[in-house]
Amino acid sequence: MKAFKAPKTELGTIDAEAAASLIAAAADIALILDSSGTIRDVSIADQSLVEDLAAHANWLGKSWVSTVTEDSRAKVEHLLADAASRQAPRWRHVNHHSVGGADIPVLYAAVRAGQPGRIVAFGRDLRAVSSLQRRLIDAQQSMERDYVRIRHVETRYRLLFQMASDAVLIVDDVARKVLDSNPTARRLFADAAEPGKSWPLANVFTPDTARSVDLLLAGVRASGRADDVRARLLDGETEAVVSASLFRDEGGTSCLVRITRPANEPAGAALPKLKTKLLKLMESAPDGFVVTGADGRIITANTAFLELAQLPTEEQARGEPLARWLGRSGVDLDILIANLRQHGSVRLFASMIRGELGETAEVEVSAVTVMNGGQPCIGFAIRDIGRRLQREPRIASALPRSLDHITELIGRVALKDLVREATDVIERLCIEAALTLTGDNRASAAEMLGLSRQSLYVKLRRYGLGDPEAAGAD
Predict the structure, then answer these.
(1) Pair (384, 397) in one structural domain
(2) What is the mean pLDDT of residues 364-370?
(3) What whole-number distance in Å separates Cα of residue 194 and Cα of residue 182?
(4) Within this chain, do residues 34 and 110 fall inside the same structural domain, yes or no?
(5) Same domain flag for 234 and 309
(6) For residue 409, pLDDT beyond 70
(7) What value does the CA radius of gyration of the chain take, rounded to a whole number of Å?
(8) φ, ψ for residue 426, nearest 5 deg
(9) Of 35, 45, 246, 400, which residue is least crowded by CB atoms under 10 Å?
(10) pLDDT of 102-143, one tens digit each?
């Protein structure tokens, strides 16, 4: 620190009033303290600072340490110690409590002055600096959030670009060269595309149709949009619909060119012929076939399933949960998916289809889980078994023993007791069937039967089905 060379000569003798004026003018907040750190007098220059400081009028007679926040008390003690030892003053950041709740930052330095043992603390109001720092931090955090959001958006669109089933090209608007292409385009134009290099868009189409594509790009550049055009690929046999849109890219403009097959061309035309035949067979199969996502929502379904569900079009089924039509309750599909997660496939699961118009059909379901583009999907083969003749003897074989027992009671007991006995027989058969369908899962069986778990446990004990202790612990 550089001090005055001749203060006595230049300033002369300064009285207390002049010294107080100098101190008040030099500091936003000034404190006069005794040697123990007790505040003897206070000067606050700014009225807003007066209003923000909590109970500033009561500082007189209090220790300086008690007026600051807990984390600043050690700094105040250091300031007092430095002043008492007549060391060069050091500025320290101290926080005061405020009426509004937020701490008020003040930069203090303390020196000995005036009467023996008196210390003067000079404070600079740092509220403006603190506000700027908070605004800077908020701006930095906002920028970070924007950067993260932009990176996520870029990742999503890059993933969409890579996974698109149509050929997509990024074309320089001036040079008419392909700057980037997705995997579908690179497979389609393997002869024209050069990995890591740009290549002329004209290498994609036949000479007589490339002119139409040039006009399309010129129209997009002039007006921002243009009607799609038809062009033939370089093999001379494949016809495609070409569409384009303009976007800004690194200070210039580029075109996103999309090449699709005509709408009247079968969707599976790009697949191998054997795979195309397989898809046609599945579509025309007499058994229902449904593909769902891992959440059980329908992605596609064939005509046989639409007939079972009594739906006129596939669009009415797409995106809907399969449980809307399959199963006696929502439990059936949950059981199927649980078994698929454990075993990968399920065979001949007995269930039923509930049609939109109220008709029901007994079905057998076989299902398998496969991966598609890194995401699991489930294929369900659904066979209508409602007309199988052998099912009737199977049902009959489960009943005679109980029915014979009821017949023997006729004439011995009253009709109301016979009805109660028949009800018990039917109830027991239903519980046994539910336990069989759910693989002895009592919670699922209770939901299927519309009972609470406790009610099912009571009936299991009543009819002696399963282990009562196990039922209570389920």
Answers:
(1) no
(2) 88
(3) 13
(4) yes
(5) no
(6) no
(7) 43
(8) -65, -40
(9) 400
(10) 788 889 988 887 677 788 888 888 888 888 888 888 899 989
Domain that holds residue 353: 273-388
- If one counts every other C-beta atom within 10 angstroms of the C-beta of residue 41, the result is 14
Q: What is the rounded distance in angstroms from the CA atom of residue 430 to the CA atom of residue 447?
A: 13
Domain boundary among 388, 409, 443: 388
Query: How do residues 41-94 score in pLDDT, each as one tens digit?
Result: 888 887 778 777 765 557 888 888 888 888 888 988 888 888 888 777 888 889
419 inside domain: yes
Asked, for residue 265, whether it belongs to a domain, the answer is: no
Amino acid at 125: D
Q: Residue 257: phi, psi to the nearest 5?
A: -105, 125
Domains contained in the chain, number: 4
pLDDT recorded at residue 10: 59
The sign of the dihedral angle between the CA atoms of 69, 72, 74, 78 is: negative
Residue 354 lies in a domain: yes
Predicted pLDDT at 330? 66
In a domain, 150, yes or no: no
Q: Are residues 303 and 337 in the same domain?
A: yes
CA–CA distance, 255 with 212 (Å, rounded to integer): 15
Report in angstroms the alpha-carbon separations of 457 from 300, 372, 436: 40, 42, 16
Spatial CB neighbours of 381, under 8 Å, sequence gap ≥ 6: 287, 288, 289, 365, 366, 367
Pull the structure tokens for residue 8.
């006595």
More confident residue, 38 or 405: 38
Q: What one-character-per-residue DSSP string does 396-447 give?
A: HHTSHHHHHHHHHHBTTB-HHHHHHHHHHHHHHHHHHHHHHHTTS-HHHHHH
Residues above pLDDT 70, as percent of the chain? 81
Residue 44's Cα: distance from chain center in Å?
A: 53
